[in-house]
User: Fold this.
Amino acid sequence: MTLDVLYFAWLRERIGQPRERIETDAATVRDLIADLAARDDWHAAAFADLAAVRCAVDQQLAGLDAPLAGAREVAFFPPMTGG
Assistant:
């Protein structure tokens, strides 16, 4: 499947780009992260601490075990704070 992957905040800085379109067979977000981390050192650094990464699948907050079947977009960002 083809996915648009978006990166925000320090993830974008570590990877060096705000978005990319990829081909993947990943079944879950966790599988996608493993695929991305295996690409190069920049992706590996961005996903080194999964506790510091949140994601959304098609603009809906999702967990790491969320399925990707039918998804078009996955966004990664740091935890949000409010106040």
Remarks:
- The two ends are 39 Å apart (CA to CA).
- The first helix runs from residue 10 to 15.
